[in-house]
Each structure stands twice: as C-alpha cells, then as structure tokens.
Give the backbone structure.
Amino acid sequence: MTYFYAANNPTMNLLKLQMKKLAILACFALFSNVTFCVTITLGTSAGTNSGTTYPAPYGNWYWGAKHQLLISASELISEGMSAGDINSLAFNVQSANGTALEDYTIQIKHTGASSATNFETSGFTTVFGPMNYTPASGWNVHTFASPFFWDGVQNLLIDVCFNNTSFTQNDIVFHTSTSFTSVVYTFQDALNVCTSPGFVQTSDERPDIQLDWTEPAIPPSAEFSASTLFSCSGSVCFSDLSTNSPTQWLWDFGDGSTDNVQNPCHTYTTSGTYTVTLTATNAFGSDVEVKTALVTINLSAPTPTAASCTPTTLVGTLGFGITNVHLNGINNASGDGSEGYGDFTCQQTTLYAGQSYNLEVLFSGPTTLNGAAWIDFNNDGTLDDATEKIAETNGTMSINQSVVIPASAVLNTPLRLRVSADYDFLGTPNPCSDLEYGQAEDYTVVVEQDTSPPDAGFTSNVIVTCDGVVSFEDLSTNIPIAWLWDFGDGSTDVAQNPTHTYTTSGTYDVSLIASNAFGNDTELVVGYITVNLEDGLVASSCTPSTLGYCCDYGIYNFQLNSINNSSPDGIEGYRDYSCEQNTTLDIHLSYTMEVRTGPNVHDTKVWIDYNNDGTFDDLTELIMDAPSQIDPSMTYSPPASALLNTPVRMRVMSDVVGGISDACSDQTFGQTEDYGISFVDPTSISEVKAPQINVYPNPVNSSFITTTTGQQIRSLTIVDLTGRILAKKQASNTSIETDVSHLVAGHYYVIVDIGNKNIIKPFIKL
C-alpha cells in the first residue's frame, strides 16, 4: 500500500507522476475533511491481455464490452483497508492505442457472492461517467463523482462498460491470476451490450486495480487473540486484530509485564490465571480491549508418561484439522492442521472408573474427515489401537460418542488422551501415523475410583417374543461386581448378561440388583417382556443375508393395516419382526401396502405364506412385484382361500435393481424383513344368544370362563380392537377358563372356534 504523502518512486515515468498528482489533488479538493488518502494496489502485473483477448476493461476489439470484477473483503483487509470511502479506481495500461471509449461507465456495489459466475443487475451505484474516455499508458485514474463507502465487511463488485459504434483493438492492460473466479464479461458488435449483455464468459485473470481510499478519521477498535488459553511452558503469543489502522500498541500481560510491538510473544514465569489488556492507538485516538482471566498457566501440571510416538502433519495448508476437543472439564479451541501436532497435556480433567462421558471433537476442512481417539489406560506410553481406542468416526465433521472408563485403568495417574483426524480419503488414522493433511492433539486425563454404589440399568434384545427366548444386557455404571436378575416368572440369575427362556405366555416385570463394594441399586421395569407363545409362526425354509451393504439400499418403513414399522436400512441385514409386528386382515376388505426404501431405485417384492408351509411360492404367494421403483405401494385384497385364524409369515424384500431372484436369494445391498399376518372372515361369526356362549365374569380382573351349550370348543383367540392376536389357546371341552391377568386394562374380543363357525364375544379387562 502506498501513502500519497510518501516520497514518489524515482523510476516512475512522467505520465504516472502526473496522474498521481491529479489523484492527490482530487482527493484533497473533493473531500475537505480528508486527513490523507491511501492507494491500495491489487495485482502484481503478472500478465496482460492481448489486442484481441479478454478480460479487457479498455477492450475495443468489439464495439463494446461489459465486465464485472469481484474483489473479496479479505483482499482489502489484508492490504490494510477498513470501512471508509473509496474515491477513485484505476487500471494499469501497458500500451494504449489512443481510441476513445464512448459512454465509459463504472458502477460499484456490495455483494455476498464469492465468485463471479453471472452478471448481477441491481444495487449498483454509478461512480464514474457515462463519459467518453481515452486510455493512456500507465495507471488510468477514474476519480469518482462522489465517494463510495465500503462497509469493511462485504465483497465489492465493480461494473465497467462502454459501447462504441466501431472497433479497433484492445488496450493492453496488466492482469493477475486470482484464486477464485473474479471476472464475468461479455463483448459484442451491438449497441446494447451494457443493458442486454450477450454470451457470458468468466475468468480468474483479473485486471490489476488501484483503489484510492480515505482512511477513516476515527480511533482504532482494539481486538486480539491468543495462541493458546492454557500453557504448561508459560509461552503465549498474541495477535493484534484491531481495526482502523492502529500505529501504536501497548500490551499488559497481567503479570506486571508489558510490550509495545504489534504481535508479541510472552513467557509467564508463575502459574496462575491472567487478564490481558491491549491499548491500540492511531492519530485519532485510542481504544482498550480487556480480556479477563484469559490465559491459564500451569507450570507444575503433572504430565503423562512420554508417548512412544508423536504424529506430525505433512501438509497443513488445506484447512483440515481439529478445532475443538471437549471431554468433561477439557474444552479446548485450536487452529487447524496448519498448527501441526498440538501438545495440550497441561489441560487435564478427572474421570471416574465405570462412568460414561461424552467426547465431542469438531473438525475443519474442505470436505469430511476420519477421526479417532485413544486413552493410554495402562500408562505404558503406547496407545494401543485395539484395546485403548475410545472413539472412531469416518466421513464426518465431528466425533460425538459416549466413552465408558474401564475399571482396569491405572488410577490417580496422568494418562495421555490423543485425538487424530485426517482427510477421509486416507483411511482412519492410527495412534502413531503421521497425518497427511490433518493433525493430532494430546491432552491429560486422571482416572479415580468412584466410591458410589452402582446405578443399575439393563436392556434386552427383544421386548416381545414368540419363542420365549430373551437375552438381557447389563448397562449398570460404577463398576458392579455382582448381579441378581429376577425375570418375573419365578426365575432368577446371577450372570452379568444372562439369556432366559420363558415357558408361559404373559407380560413379565424384570428387575436387576447391581452391587459393588460400596452398595447396590435396583432397576425394576414393570411389564417389560411380553411372551406370546401361541403366535409363533412356522419357521421359514431360508433366511436371506445382505452380502455387502452400500449406498442407503434397504427398507426404511413398512406399512400394512396396523403394522407401521420403521427401521434402519440394509446395514442391519435380515430382520424377523413376525412376532412383534403382526396384523389381522379381513378377507373381504382391501388395504394399502407401502414400502419406503432408500433414495435409490430398488426392486421390491412381497410374499405371504398362504399355506403356512414355511416356503414362498412365486406363482401363488407373490403379492407385490415392484421393479425399478422408489417407495412402492399397492392396494392389497386378501384372497378368499386364505388360511383363517392362523398367523402366517409375510416376507418383504428390497434390493438393487436385478438383485432379487426369489424369496430366498441373498441381497446385494438391500435386505429382507418378515412380518406376521392373520386372516379372518367376520361373516362366518354368527350371533349366538346367551345360552349358547357365555363369558363370565365380564368385566374381568384376572380370568374368565367361557361355556357353550351343546358345542365343543376347539380353540379360543383373544384379539385387541385392531385385530392383533394377543393369545391363543387350544381346547376340547364345553367350558374353558382363560387367564388374562397379563392384559392391560381395556376392551378386547374373544373368538371361540366351535368347529363349524367362529363366535366373537366382547369383554372388558379391569
């Protein structure tokens, strides 16, 4: 940047000197309140256009030419500009041909665009012309009729246009390549190029530009940053971020030391937390920025065992890296991979063995990253990728995972936490691998024993079962060492993760008592497991597998009558929902069946095992065949020949186009899901008067008795109001007692099969 009051370059040619003097006079004559003006030069004269090529702001190879030149705010700020008036604009001509350009006009506007891809048409302010202008060699200064105020934040877009009625050749103008598309332009032999531009072209070769800027006559606005907020060495570097061109700086580091350079580095010699103050000054005044308790110094912080390796960043200029790590008391913001490896081991937090903590790590980069984290739990200096990895993510911009601290961790000792991230094309980093574009950061954790009793908790693989087999998993925290399970059917177990088999249909409460040396805790879930042994389906003759999940293929949701089941896609492979997801269909009605698939085109097929033999026939049991579709649906009408009052298996299969051959074929990328279906024929249920069928007591608390007059009962089926079968009982008598204590309060039906007909009776469970 060149100040007009500075000495002129003695090698400058006479024409340039004359033009500079004119610009100075214009600056001081037009704007009486100006203290001094500054010339901002953008470009290094690296190249030129030719007499017939563009961009060319003085280009007369065609009758007229229109250019819009984009200047980023970051370019202006890096040259020392802040919000203020722009008084003139200039282009640098290597050689001029002496042709006058008619109605030469310059307009400027603020813009949010980051590249010049098409002409903008609104919001411009005309600052020069229209007037006839003849370019000359050197800097051609276009003094504005009135200054244009730049807000110091937004990008600038400069529109330059003229329109002759003949053509010669372009004036040769210096230009420089930019890192973004900075010019959009057009040219044509027509009179309306400025108002109706023709074929639009773009370029990153922007003509060199000089802007005459009035430095605002206001004091600085002080601001600064620190290289780190925590330091074990005591060394911290500070960066001045003040605006409005300060010329003097006074730093107070909070420990009695000061400095007057713009960007100082300071070494603290005593542990503590320090307030840092910057006073920024220019010719118009001063401003003070105080950051209270900004820097924490811990010169005596215990450090972990030295690491067996320290990853380095090979290329840190692309913006990849780690910008924040948050684990319990650690919450550290940092730069990207340009900083390389970060040793933040003076930042530490205390974690308790057996407890769960959330690890959050934010990444930066032009695209997604792979990341991982480890804790040296055995404190041997080696971070084991198999046993000490606590988190991993691929193709994301963050880690957000729960971490459980193991009971085996070395206690009351500083342990190393390492976080690494790199461009996801390069695979998941390991603890010692150098990072191609990303970086690694180290922190300290101290693990202590938690003297609290366990916090009991558990889960299971299913909560509804038709075979009675349920696997339970202990989720208790605070490191229990003993467990006592009560499955609600009179059975118990002391294993940590037991599998239990229920032998009677019903709804069961499950409890777990988890104990350690400091006490115990009980978790009780009422009505947790529902067992429905009567609704088990005939096993399928095959179970299709997903060979290689990819690309969001699979089934996301299936709907039919009362079934509305959402699930992950093909990544989970085959799923048998036939026990917990079933419905009853009236053979006289029609139903909407919908399969929501992934976003790609799928082949989808649905079968129902009408004859209940465990196989699916493509000729007689295929009910949906939807090739090359997304989210297929259909209207389904059950056949009159369907097997009544008996649960049968429905199979839904969705895969990549061409991936399904039959109901047993493995899927390429997709998956198979099974459901349960029962068919009923309400027209076969006749009204039977009280003496023939009796259900009592009704309402019922725990059990009721069903009796008939002269008819033997073959079976009883209990259904809810949606038709879902809840229980089924075989019989061979005229009187049956049925236990319904496991049902929740509500309205139900009992279907009585007496051989030649079905009779339905309502009852209420209290």
The chain has six domains: 2-214, 224-297, 321-448, 458-531, 535-682, 686-765. The chain has a mean pLDDT of 88. The chain has two helices and 56 strands.
